[in-house]
Amino acid sequence: MESKSINSPQYDYSLLKRCGSNVFISSKVEIRRPHLVSIGSNIAIDTGFYCTTNAELGNYIHIAPYVTVIGGANGVLKMGNFSNIGAGSRVICASEEHMGEGLIGPTIPEKYKDKLLIAPVVFEDYSGVGTNVVIMPGVTFGEGAIVAACSFVNKNLEPWTIYAGVPARPIKIRPREKMLAMGRELIVGG
Question: CA 5: distance to chain centroid?
């Protein structure tokens, strides 16, 4: 992917905290706090991406169309190398607990607010999710963990395991050696 060869308007990369090479970010994204977003190299972020949090993206990452990452200035999304988020997925890095301790919403004054659960969402290397997956605060995807489309993730995921369902449950183990070898080749020789 050469970002210059993509005939589409692009985001103003100078707004970001850090931006590597060979990056394509559609101009039709909203990154609320770009000064808190660091992006590696070989990245594609498609139309409709909406992000309100801190974000640290490694290398060789794809964020498909209409992905939402919410959690405000204290929320954190970390994506390791070769990770991805499928179209329409929702990553929630902070959320009210909804247990009746207070009112819900960003416009509520602090003394009336519900308790907040703020915890990073971490995608370790080679991990990712399919289309329309919902991920709750504090979830870590172990290296190579994958979640099938339309799943709900509320617990940490074991490395090199495929998950599916509501809530997501392990269904199969992924082979890892071939993927690791290809990743090493790209990093060293690419």
Answer: 25
Catalytic residue among 18, 35, 98, 184: 98
For residue 167, say if its preceding peptide bond is cis, omega within 30 degrees of 0.
Answer: yes
The alpha carbon of residue 49 and the mean position of all alpha carbons in its chain are separated, in whole angstroms, by 10
Instruction: Report the C-alpha gap between 115 and 38 in whole angstroms.
Output: 29
Handedness of CA 181, 184, 189, 190 (dihedral sign): positive
Please name the residue that has the structure tokens 């392990």.
170
Contacts of 12 (CB under 8 A, 6+ apart): none
Task: Say how far apart CA 5 and CA 9 lie, in whole Å.
Answer: 11
pLDDT in tens, 75-123: 999 999 999 999 999 999 999 888 888 999 889 998 999 998 999 999 9
- Residue whose C-alpha is closest to residue 35's, from 58, 60, 52, 23: 52
Look up the pTM and report it.
0.92
Cβ atoms within 10 Å, residue 126: 25
Report in angstroms the alpha-carbon separations of 16 from 36, 37, 71.
Answer: 7, 6, 18
Amino acid residing at 152: F
Q: What is the C-alpha to C-alpha distance for residues 190 and 188, in angstroms, rounded to an integer?
A: 6
Examine the residue annotation and report whether 35 is marked as an active-site residue of this protein.
no
